[in-house]
Structure formats: C-alpha cells, structure tokens
Specification:
13% of the residues lie in helices and 38% in strands. It starts with a helix and ends in a 5-residue tail after the last strand. The chain has 491 residues and is mainly beta. The relative contact order is 0.12. The strands form six sheets. Strands 20, 21, 23, 25, 26, 27 and 29 form a seven-stranded mixed beta sheet that branches.
C-alpha cells in the first residue's frame, strides 16, 4: 500500500485512538446517537462468553518518510490487541496470517503454562494459516502481548492487552494507551550480527527461523544503549507525524503506558502536567505523584492525569542516556499543536529511585519463605554474551520449585548494564533493593541496575515450565534466560 495511506490507516488504529472509545461520557454519547443503551451486568456476562479473534499478520507503516513492512496483532474490532470488559474471560482464537510461524506471549498474565505462548517442545510455534484457541481467567490491568519466537517482537509483533475492572469504569476517565517501540530498518538478525560479530546466518540459528527482510544495515554504535535505532515510535508514529489524542478541556485521563521496545528504556516526561502512578505492570500501588517516571523494557505504568486547562500537552518518552525522544500529544479542541523535535538535551540513565519508593496496594500476604535462589546476571559487550549463573540458554539448570512454596530470588547484577528481568506465569513483589527490605510494587518485570541486587518474592501457585529472562531481546537470545520448573512437570 502507498506510504501515505499506511500512515493514515495506522493513525485510525492507534492504541490511543482505541483508548478514547472507553471514555464513559463518549460511550454514552455514542450509544444515544446510535439509539442503543449501555450493557447492563447480565448482558455483560452474556457477552463475556463470546470468543474473540486475534489475527497475526503484516502491515506497512511509514517511518522517517520510508515505508516499512512490519508485523501486526489485530483484534476483532480492527484495532491492535485485545481489550476485555470487567469479568470477561480471555477467550481468544489466534489466527496466524503472517506468512511465517509465530507464537504470542500474554505478557504479565497468569494462564496455564501451556497457554503462555513460549516455544517449549510441548508448545511449538503456530504454523502459518493455523488457529490456536486460548481460554483462561485474566487478571485486570495494563498488559501487552508480543511474539516470543524468532525475534519477531523487534518487528512489531506486539499489541496492548487491557483488562478492565469495574472500579475503572466508574471513574469517568478517558482512557489513553501509549505504546512505545524502538524501530530499525535492519532485520533483527542483522542487529544481532552487529552486536555479536557473528554472521547473519549464525544469528538466525541462535534465534530460530529467518524473519522478514526489512532493509539494508546501517551503522551502529555501542554506548549505554546496545543498539542504534533509526527511530522511536509512540503508537507507531514519530514526532514528524505524532499521534494527537483529542481530550476535553479540564479532562480526566487514565494514561496506560507500555514499553514495548526490544532494547530501549525511557523516562516518561509529562511536561507541565503532574500525574499519579496508581499501578505498575498492571498491579495497583499506593499513588506516587510526579512529572517524570522511569520505564524499563516491558514495564507498564498506569497514570491518572487531570488537565488544568485547554491546550496541547505533549507526553514524552525520552531515551535514557541520549537526547532522543518520541511521544504523543494530548490536545483539546482547536488547540495549537506544537512541533516537537526528535532530540533534546540528554536524559540520564534509568535508576531505581522510584522503585525503592513504591508500595504495593495489594501486597503478598506475610508468611515464611520456603526457598531462596540466587541468580547472578553475567556478561559483557565484548564478546556479546549474557548469562544467568554462568549458564547460557538453552544449556541451563532449571530452578526447581514445589507447588505452594513461598519463593524468594536474589538477582545479583555483576555486569555494567541494567537488566529488566521478567518471570513468566507469576506476579512477584519487590522485597529488597541492595539488601534493604521494602514492601515494594507487585510486578512481572524488574530492573536490576549494574553492580546492584534486587530481591523478589512470589508464591509458587501456577505449576508448569516458565521462562525467566532479561527482557532486552538481544540479551535474551544471547543467553540471559533460564527456566523455572515445578516438580513433577514432564519435559
């Protein structure tokens, strides 16, 4: 399709545009205009039994004036991803129309392990043209979905996964979703080859089947960020053509921010606005007010905003260690839209200052710890190889658990890079930073700073085989992944 048409199409289907539909006032206006009424609880329960169709396919977007073929995950309404009503089950048929094999992980959700979307021998990738059914009880909050096969995540096989609860629907806030990505015209295999010094064929063997060709390689530099990207996207757009979200004067916003980047971390900068973080990785926290918040790879923030007046309000995502930025603009009717540069003064590296100050609103119940594991995070840029306890995936020794245990894991970072560590199938509480106990946030992804340590705690209540890995895509495929396995699970 022509590049201009692709840009318009993506604007109409942006996550933020979808989020606008969930303003209660907007919903009521639309219902009245259409001659319909809102669903009552009984109707909601009936609707909850419907199976949703999610299509994995391809699309063309425009980046820096160039067309780029990328993946897509499109829900039944034609928009990216899946949104569920309060109490609705995750009943989804994933149809693979991507032209290659794929497998989608429901990041942060707690399904049975065979529905988690990780390529174990028992749960192989989905063939092109095949359909896979999923059915489980989801947990509410801001989540996302992404391919866990062949580095497809880098090529935007990602989308929001929003599970609403009844309390949010009563708040009368306009929902806005901001999804961040890092983008390169290179294939992931070319990026990895540049990092490791191996050939593209060798990196394809490391990661799986070949991915779609995107374009030719560009130059790369090594600094705080492993990969030099061509652009950073906010709802598939850059500040050359930003996503402009229309809001009411003095409006009340529920901003859901998802860092879907493969190898980039951001400071979320609200500019003149002050927001309250009320959830991290989908789980409620005691509110924290501020205008700038760190957001590691794969993490999410729920932020409540109250607009002080009419006007345009840029929401920036600033790449750590550089001046590069992306974002969206909240704008009231007839507001003058400012032009925002792609680069400004350098942002500092991310840190754990906010993490140390977070308090879970729904903490784990207090009980004795049954088992403690220590995992040393190792590796360096040259040679580009990353490990857990000195082992490189897939040649790892699983962490074995018994069902019902209270488990604590000490993550000790012996490297000079920060690592966002993600545990599949469980929500954990951050219980200590550098040996100092805290009653921290409940999360599924935690950032472990260089030469520091973080302790997490969780209950072993979801038997299966679970991946435990760095969510920097290139660290993961270069070895920084292990397995958490329950006793009695056949392999």
């Amino acid at each position: 399709m022509p590049a201009k048409d692709a840009r318009i199409q993506q604007h109409d289907r942006s996550p933020a545009a979808i989020g606008n539909a969930f303003s209660r006032r907007g919903f009521l206006k639309a219902a009245l205009a259409a001659g319909t009424l809102p669903l009552f609880p009984g109707a909601t329960r009936a609707a909850a039994s419907a199976v949703k169709r999610l299509v994995a396919g391809t699309r063309v977007i425009e980046v820096n004036g160039r067309p780029a073929k990328v993946f897509r995950l499109t829900g039944p309404d034609g928009h990216p991803g899946i949104r569920l009503a309060p109490g609705e089950r995750f009943r989804v048929n994933l149809a693979n129309e991507s032209g290659t094999r794929t497998l989608v992980h429901w990041h942060g959700q707690l399904p049975p392990w065979t529905q988690d979307g990780f390529p174990w021998p028992q749960t192989p990738p989905l063939a092109d043209g095949a359909v896979q059914a999923y059915d489980y009880a989801p947990i509410p909050g801001t989540y996302w979905m992404h391919s866990h096969y062949d580095m497809q995540e880098q090529n935007l096989m990602t989308a929001p996964l929003i599970v609403h609860n009844a309390a949010e629907r009563r708040e009368d806030r306009q929902e806005v979703v901001l999804m961040l990505h890092d983008f390169t015209f290179r294939t992931p295999q070319e990026v990895l080859a540049g990092l490791t010094g191996k050939s593209t064929a060798q990196t394809q063997a490391m990661a799986g089947m070949p991915a779609m060709a995107m374009s030719s390689p560009t130059s790369m530099h090594m600094d705080l960020n492993d990969v030099h990207y061509d652009a950073f996207l906010a709802n598939d757009r850059t500040f050359a053509d930003p996503d402009i979200v229309r809001v009411e004067r003095g409006g009340h916003i529920h901003l859901r921010v998802i860092n879907g980047a493969s190898s980039s971390q951001f400071w979320l900068d609200l500019g003149e606005l002050v927001g309250q973080v009320v959830a991290t990785d989908g789980h409620p926290v005691q509110p924290v007010a501020g205008s700038r918040f760190p957001l590691a790879m794969a993490q999410r923030l729920d932020i409540l905003l109250d607009l002080p007046r009419s006007g345009a309000f840029p929401i920036l995502a600033r790449l750590e260690g550089t001046g590069r930025q992306t974002g969206i603009i909240l704008a009231t009717t007839a507001a003058q839209i400012p032009r925002i540069a792609h680069s400004t003064q350098a942002a500092p590296p991310l840190d754990n200052s906010m993490e140390a100050g977070l308090t879970a609103a729904e903490p784990l119940r207090e009980r004795p710890t049954d088992i403690v594991h220590t995992i040393a995070l190792g590796g360096e840029m040259k040679p580009y190889a990353w490990s857990m306890n000195g082992e490189h995936w897939p040649h790892v020794t699983p962490l074995m658990l018994d069902q019902g245990q209270r488990v604590e894991i000490d993550l000790v970072n012996r490297t000079m890079m920060a690592h966002p560590i993600h545990l599949h199938g469980h929500a954990f509480q951050v219980s200590a930073i550098d040996g100092q106990p805290i009653r921290g946030a409940v999360r599924d992804t935690v950032l472990v700073m260089p030469k520091r340590r973080v302790r997490i705690a969780f209950d072993a209540n979801n038997p299966g085989r679970w991946a435990f890995h760095c969510h920097n895509l290139y660290h993961m495929v270069s070895g920084m992944m292990t397995e958490v396995r329950y006793q009695g699970i056949a392999v």
